[in-house]
Amino acid sequence: MQRLLTPVKRILQLTRVMQETSLTPARLLPVAHQRFSTASAIPLAKTDTWPKDVGILALEVYFPAQYVDQTDLEKYNNVEAGKYTVGLGQTRMGFCSVQEDINSLCLTVVQRLMERIQLPWDSVGRLEVGTETIIDKSKAVKTVLMELFQDSGNTDIEGIDTTNACYGGTASLFNAANWMESSSWDGLRGTHMENAYDFYKPNLASEYPIVDGKLSIQCYLRALDRCYTSYRKKIQNQWKQAGSDRPFTLDDLQYMIFHTPFCKMVQKSLARLMFNDFLSASSDTQISLYKGLEAFGGLKLEDTYTNKDLDKALLKASQDMFDKKTKASLYLSTHNGNMYTSSLYGCLASLLSHHSAQELAGSRIGAFSYGSGLAASFFSFRVSQDASPGSPLDKLVSSTSDLPKRLASRKCVSPEEFTEIMNQREQFYHKVNFSPPGDTNSLFPGTWYLERVDEQHRRKYARRPV
Amino acid sequence: MQRLLTPVKRILQLTRVMQETSLTPARLLPVAHQRFSTASAIPLAKTDTWPKDVGILALEVYFPAQYVDQTDLEKYNNVEAGKYTVGLGQTRMGFCSVQEDINSLCLTVVQRLMERIQLPWDSVGRLEVGTETIIDKSKAVKTVLMELFQDSGNTDIEGIDTTNACYGGTASLFNAANWMESSSWDGLRGTHMENAYDFYKPNLASEYPIVDGKLSIQCYLRALDRCYTSYRKKIQNQWKQAGSDRPFTLDDLQYMIFHTPFCKMVQKSLARLMFNDFLSASSDTQISLYKGLEAFGGLKLEDTYTNKDLDKALLKASQDMFDKKTKASLYLSTHNGNMYTSSLYGCLASLLSHHSAQELAGSRIGAFSYGSGLAASFFSFRVSQDASPGSPLDKLVSSTSDLPKRLASRKCVSPEEFTEIMNQREQFYHKVNFSPPGDTNSLFPGTWYLERVDEQHRRKYARRPV
């Protein structure tokens, strides 16, 4: 229903490239596609059908302002005449100077496109970058592009970077078209993306990131506030259309899981959501429902990221809720540590492993995903009603029940041995023509392992028998 | 319509992670989600609606077989007791040895999942990897996972890698759900993915790839054959259901565009498609329609990747078709060189810039996308019928008409200057605390450029006035 009642959101899909071959060092050309459907013409009753004719409505092409003539280059490189011009079929070759990189090229092409077609910055709902040029192993190009949207206040733009050599552009085109055809187009989730340097991996030769710990926590909490605000607004709009005018609060979620850099951060985050609920509540509700928070009613979200008195009061006020809604989801993180990309889904598995299908059936599980740089979403899972034996829910829950046992079956190694293995990882990080040392019997049965990296960096894997 | 008539394709979505912080060097945990809808229960008449309740039906969690106790580590690191166990809320920390990497972890978790739920390998239609662990800047983890599907013969599996710090898992989850809800689920495109080392970038500290040129051309042509075969099969099935039983050939495409590593490769590829048509044709048609190819009727596709006599005959036989359907699309590549990820879309822009809206209206444009490693798709664009002044098609085509003029307005630099700039790129590739040299007036108006990289690798950009 939302599809027709909100401003038309559009897709901005961006395919980008930097050419780097051993023969011809660096040339560049970006292309952006701006695509949106005619969805607003679909009658209200049919909003759950695919919009027709999703496609490309605008294209932007950018290339650098200089080129080298290929006949000249044949002479200069002392190769036979025609090698490039006839053999490759190429007369000129554009290339980038050091003033341009993957980020600047994308900034240029997005801004040119938006200006040329006069598309309002706040009307974009998705933007994805397809590239094979990695200048940071963690921070997506997409996050840098969020700078362009800053003045519009639009940070709810889905899509990040997608990569596989020259196929990234096509993958992002397919993803964007799927998004247009799906219910996600105006789905119930709040996304916040912005350009931040809180945790990133610009040193490509290193396994380690650059981390600004304090900034990263602030970014996480700000993103949480923004995403939750947006999610609540959307669900309240849906309720309003259905005739119910009441605020959404954590009471509407039976469970709440979070991306978990470390477990304490999650407890603080749940407390933070309660603070959001508290600030949105009426004075009466503030007094009756949120004991111990009376002193903080006049504060603003953005002024409280380092308020320790508030933190303490919130942790206390939300302790029961934490024990009930979130604690079980931290089992895996507690026993395994930060899991990065899979962290949120490790929490989901932990939650399932600690509850019965009957307990979970029909519940709504809130989920907050965060990636530095930054990209974040608040969304929710609805658990199916059917918890009968053999039901999909029953099977899913059963499959996670051995988590504690599996975790307990791991081998404990000493800090000395741990340090030695970490040193090995550093030592072998870029090594070629080698087979990793170690006994494969120390792996769980059925585990794949790296058998060899050959002199051409090609990797061979083998599997320990089940 | 296809949704109900082909074997149920399923989504395998995989979120993966390798943890690397300056504090705690390396821990690992992958999670895989296997999700499919109950789409097959939807009545035939409603196949253009969203399937209901797309979600997670299975989860697989894997963690390494060893951990280090956090109380032990507090003592070993000589930090205050409770720093990790209470401060971070963590009692144990799993980590990987050198025997495991992002690829092996994903291999393990996918295989465990498939075996546990006994899902046939040929029933998977999409698999996407969300990770922040880059061990190759070009080759996706997804391509390595294709090894697992090899015996089943299933190479038509969409989705590649998606990245932004810890958000990649959620992005791939959203993409997978969108795919389920979209028409792409059984859309008209042929995809081929496999694990190949034809072109890749395993040396993260270098701008340059490792290239096996001969292998890459063979991989490209084999992928083209496979994708085209799959695309033709799907469209012929659609026609059959509509009552028409005839083969699809290049005659059904008014234009054909290709990923363009170099222009000659594209001409060879169009010729290759004609060879596909030729081999599928009846003897009568072979003789009447494909002059000069008589001698090659008994060959098999897979035996002809280096047959020079065949290449010559095919280039000759397809020359007219090339001039008519493909040549115009190579304008940008001819004048700018290889454009990598954006290459195919540069061809689309070139094609549009060389034809009027009237000429293009109602046509079907075939498109072949290829990324080494490898991932490839054959699909098509349908151009809208309405070419009237002010129509979306008219606007799109008009917007590309200045391409030749813009290309001509670039500055020609000498091979010496080109070489100097390439050397600068190498020299500055990893440099921090610097501002790129060069006159920003040499950029096109409105171009963003890299202004500074600070000592923390943070990048600042500025824009040349329009």
Q: Mind explaining what this structure looks like?
A:
The structure is a homodimer of 466-residue chains. Chain A is an alpha+beta fold and 466 residues long. Helices cover 38% and strands 17% of the residues of chain A. Chain A contains 17 helices and 18 strands. In chain A, the strands form 6 sheets. The first copy, chain A, has a 5-stranded mixed sheet, with helices on both faces. In chain A, strands 10-15-14-13 form a 4-stranded mixed sheet, sandwiched between helices. Chain A has a two-stranded antiparallel sheet with strand order 2-3. In chain A, helix 5 links the parallel strand 8 and strand 9. The first copy, chain A, starts with a helix and ends with a strand. The N terminus of chain A is likely disordered. At the A-B interface, strand 2, strand 3, strand 5, strand 6 and helix 2 of A face strand 2, strand 3, strand 5, strand 6 and helix 2 of B.
Walk me through the topology.
The structure is a homodimer of 466-residue chains.
Chain A (H helix, E strand, L loop, with lengths): L1 H4 L4 E6 L2 E2 L7 E2 L2 E5 L22 E4 L4 E4 H7 L6 H5 L4 E3 L7 H16 L6 E7 L10 H9 L11 E3 L4 H14 L8 E4 L5 E2 L9 E2 L1 H29 L13 E4 L4 H18 L2 H7 L18 H10 L1 H7 L5 H6 L6 H11 L3 H4 L3 E8 L3 E8 L9 H8 L3 H6 L2 E3 L1 H14 L19 E6 L5 E5 L3
Parallel strand pairs in A: 1-8, 8-9, 13-14
Antiparallel strand pairs in A: 1-4, 2-3, 4-5, 6-7, 10-15, 11-12, 14-15, 17-18
Helix pairs in contact in A: 4-5, 7-8, 8-10
